[in-house]
Amino acid sequence: MADGDSLREAHPTERAVGIGYYASRADGIGGRLRESPEDFRVRELEAFDAEPLDADPGSYPDLVVRATLRDWDTNDFARRLSDALGVSRERVSWAGTKDKRAVTTQLFTVRGADADDLPEIRGAEIAALGRAGRSLSFGDLAGNAFEIRVADAVDGAPERVAEAVRDLRAFAGDADEGDANETDADGSSGPSVDESIEATVGVPNYFGQQRFGSRRPVTHVVGLAIARNDPREAVRLYAGNPAAAEPDDTRAARDRVDAAFGVSGDSGLDGGPAADGTGDGDWAACLDAIPGKLRFERSMVHRLDDRGVAPDAPPDDEDWWHALEAVPSNLQRLFVNAAQSFLFNRIVSERLRRGLPFDRPVAGDVVCFADGDAPEGLYAPDADRLQRVDADRVDVVSRHCERGRAFVTAPLVGTETSLGDGEPGEIEREVLADAGVETGDFALPGEFDSNGTRRAVLLRTDLDVTFEGGDPRFAFALPSGSYATALLREFTKRGPLDL
């Protein structure tokens, strides 16, 4: 494992969300994703059983369907399906939300529908599979299988892919590194454009950019303010705090909100200086400035205006919590989840910088065991089965990790999170101290409360790369909750907004 001095530093946009480095030092292939929806294919690895279609609807009220969607956002398709069936949108459920510009295959359940009622929808192939006694939920998704083409890759992309694979095989703990970077008879290194690469690789299990917001990544700074018991600053960071990439009218509206709180100038995505209560508190003027498209920001500020909240009210005053709770419950949870994800990324980055292994534990680590119910070939950790590793157990647990039976973890910090010992625990505590939070700070009101959990630091997969006209197509499978971009970034070496 390389130390921090020899690591390749991440893109500035990634560093803002805690992603510090690449595991591979190979040069990137550049390129673009999603030149067409067919360039990004995702197929769910299902963990949900259906009864036959003729099962009693009284006992099995949910119709289970598999849909292959082209260029459909999951939420938009669910709305279109419910409209076509004449049922409430709340009766349509799924296990995982997929990106729009892609070809995706996934399950849906529709409460109270029959197979004969299924409509024809443009860009969708829908097939009834059976019936179920309950609706789908996130836990019913084991993982996803991907086939992703990177278009317009640089000349020499196959050689660069081979170099990156060599690094990532070593990162995954594979001692045999030769296949992906052998020297051909003509003296060239790596495969030709007509060859393919197959290898087990590993990368840091980072949370991807979409977890934090692609063009305005602020959900984690809002969540950190919440964890610090400062809902005033959390409201300001979400409703104010303009980003350079936003349209002029949006930036102007957020500037007006900042002025109401007492913050002026370009605060930057991390929020800059906190509100000090010296603003004018003219929430009505803020509402006049905030465009209708910022409906959640308007909802927050509307509650401040309704109650006539003074900008110098105590930072933890109930009125600020009331304003923060104007957004939907899933967004309230996302604020805290993004803060946990940012801290996780920071911990993983520091582990990488210090040169600690990812494929096996050191004394003080906490490992989890593999999910025994995962589909064959999927490296899926089970964060509910944890074991602390002391010095006497390092060798034994390392063998479990080598065989894919155990995974080193880091915390998604919450009230019930147990931090590691030794150097891993030191990293975890230093990152929390630098962020100004403790595990107990996540004992929060309502939807903001979180018990926390742990997550594997290594994302391992069996990778198959083929080449079409010099452009690579990556095929791999990941467990639910992991990000395809965590793997692809190691090959492209481009910022998340450039893809």
Task: Quickly list its features.
globular, single chain, 17 strands, nine-stranded mixed sheet, four-stranded antiparallel sheet, 13 helices
Helix-strand blueprint:
Blueprint lengths: L7 E2 L2 H4 L5 E2 L7 E3 L7 E7 L15 E9 L3 H12 L6 E3 L8 E9 L12 E9 L8 E9 L1 E3 L3 H15 L25 E8 L14 H9 L3 H9 L8 H14 L21 H7 L5 H13 L10 H7 L4 H26 L11 E5 L10 E8 L5 H9 L3 E7 L9 H14 L17 E4 L1 E11 L2 E9 L4 H9 L7
Q: Could you state the order of secondary-structure elements as H and E?
A: EHEEEEHEEEEEHEHHHHHHHEEHEHEEEH
* Residues in helices, as a percent range: 25-40%
Number of strands: 17
**Radius of gyration from CA coordinates:** 24 Å
Distance between the termini: 28 Å
Largest β sheet strand count, sense and barrel closure: 9 strands, mixed
Shape: globular
What is the count of helical runs?
A: 13
What are the segments in which pLDDT stays under 50 over at least 5 consecutive residues?
A: 180-193
* Mean pLDDT rating: 92
Strand percentage lies at 15-25%
The structural class is alpha+beta
Describe the structure.
This protein is of the alpha+beta class. Helix content is 30%, strand content 22%. It is built from 13 helices and 17 strands. The chain has helices at residues 12-15, 74-85, 157-171, 219-227, 231-239, 248-261, 283-289, 295-307, 318-324, 329-354, 394-402, 422-435, 484-492; strands spanning 8-9, 21-22, 30-32, 40-46, 62-70, 92-94, 103-111, 124-132, 141-149, 151-153, 197-204, 366-370, 381-388, 406-412, 453-456, 458-468, 471-479. Strands 4, 5, 6, 7, 8, 9, 11, 16 and 17 form a 9-stranded mixed beta sheet that branches. A 4-stranded antiparallel beta sheet has the order 13-12-14-15. The radius of gyration is 24 Å and the shape is globular. The model is unreliable at 180-193 (pLDDT under 50).
